[in-house]
Structure formats: structure tokens, C-alpha cells
Fold this sequence. Notes:
Layout: H1 2-17, H2 19-27, E1 29-35, E2 43-44, E3 50-51, H3 53-69, E4 74-80, H4 85-90, E5 96-97, H5 105-108, E6 112-127, E7 142-146, H6 150-161, E8 167-171, H7 174-182, E9 188-192, H8 193-203, E10 209-211, E11 217-225, H9 230-246, H10 249-257, H11 265-273
Parallel strand pairs: 1-4, 1-5, 7-8, 7-9
Antiparallel strand pairs: 2-3, 6-9, 6-10, 6-11
Helix pairs in contact: 3-9
Amino acid sequence: MRILALLLAAALAWPAAAQTLDKIRKSGTLTLGYIDGAAPFSSVDGNGDPQGYSIDLCRAVADAIAAQLGRTLKTRWVKLTIQNRIDAVRRRQVDLECSTTTWTLARQKLVDFSLVTFVDGGSILSKVDAPMGRIGDFGGKRIAVLQGTTTERALREALTRALVNAEVVTVKARDEGLELLRQSQVDGFAADRTTLIGVVAKRAGGDIYKLLEEDFSIEQYALMLPRGDSDFRLAVNRGLARLYRSGDIRRIYDRSLGPLGPPSLLLTATYFIQSLAE
Length: 278
């Protein structure tokens, strides 16, 4: 009886393991999630179309999956938020999430992740004439940070390690954090370094800012996908590994991130290590 139950459980689990590719094959559509306001990784252009580094990665993955399935695929883009992105993947409202999600073990209990797509670090944006240059200088200051992100947790841990008594002010959007800083309602705005550069480049409005001299955390970005679907994860990773192996990743990097300078040594090593052979 126990063996029969195990066989039945395995039989029930098998369709779920292959359901994403089967669904895509039958529908001819790949559903991709993105977050607006996370330039240069994900945002929208003047026509409302998604654009950015992570968006281009997902488009390349979509092409790879279409080639694997031997059919043309349409891509349907679904706008998500920082707050609902994980649930959207868990509930299979999107097949793949294309933004700035950091791969953590806690999150991997809920969703799965692709190969690492970018390596960044947590920093704090402040006005250029502010005296703060290191995290230890924020004693008695107010720091805004996106609520429920890995950056919020890393910031609190960094402040504790440095014995810095600062007030952490949580916000729901990057624009909100920048606006609080612009109006001097907070002394700093914490987020991933590259994202902060993108936010300032797009919305600074003539104001001048600076970043910390050193990052307080490391953030490994990856594409989120549903758990328990090894075939789909393999298809996604095959597409990414081909980009890394062929060097085409540099073309994608240059399109969105080129103005910020070449890939760091750490990111270059990340691409090289993950250029897996077929």
C-alpha cells in the first residue's frame, strides 16, 4: 500500500514538473513579469514598452525557448511591483520575472532562480554636500529604503554591525525614496548601487548626489521562476549560458549599462564561470 501511494504521488507530481514548457508550447505565449522604475534593469519607454538589461535578457531567453520548442512565441508582459513579484511567480501568473530580484536561500523556499544575471552591492545615496561618506557617518540620521527588500535587511544588519543608531524609513517605490531625499526629509536613500545611479540619471532634475565610498552588501540578481519545474529552469539557464558563452551578453550589457562603464571584474568572472557547456 505504501509503495502504491508513493507511485501515485510521483505520478501526480510529474505533470507539474513539465507544465510550464507544455503550457508555453500549447499557448504559443511566454508570460514575463517586470517592474517599472528600476532603470537601467527594467522600466518602460515612451510607448509604455518594457526596456532595460533584465528585459533584454528575458527576450533572449524567450528566443532560446522558442528555438527549443521549434515554434514562434509571443511574449506577454505583466507589470509587477516589489511587493507582489514573488507571489506572482508562486501563483504562476508569470512564467519568468525580469527585474532586479536578489537570489537568497529564504526566497528559494518559495520560488526558483536562474543562473546569476548581475552582481551589485547595496549603497546609500545622499546629497553631494552632506558630510556622510561611510555608513558609520549616519548616526542620528534618517535613511529611506524599499520595504521588504534584501537591501532593507542588509541595511539594518550593517547599521547594527557598525553600532550606528540611525532611523530606517521604509518606502514602497524608488521614486518615493528619492523624493524624500530631495526634500531633505531623509538624509540618505539606500538601494542597489546601479539602481541608484539609474534613478538619479532619470529623475534627479538637476540635483547632485553622491554614493557611499564602499558598499554595505552584495546582491546577486537572477530571474525568478516557479519551483518544481526543472525542465523550464534548464531551458532558461540554457539560454543564459549561451549568452555568456558566446559573448553576446556584452552587447546586452552595453545597451543598458554601457554608460556606467565596463562590467566589473566580479561581474566578468560571473559571466565566465556560468558559460556552461552544452
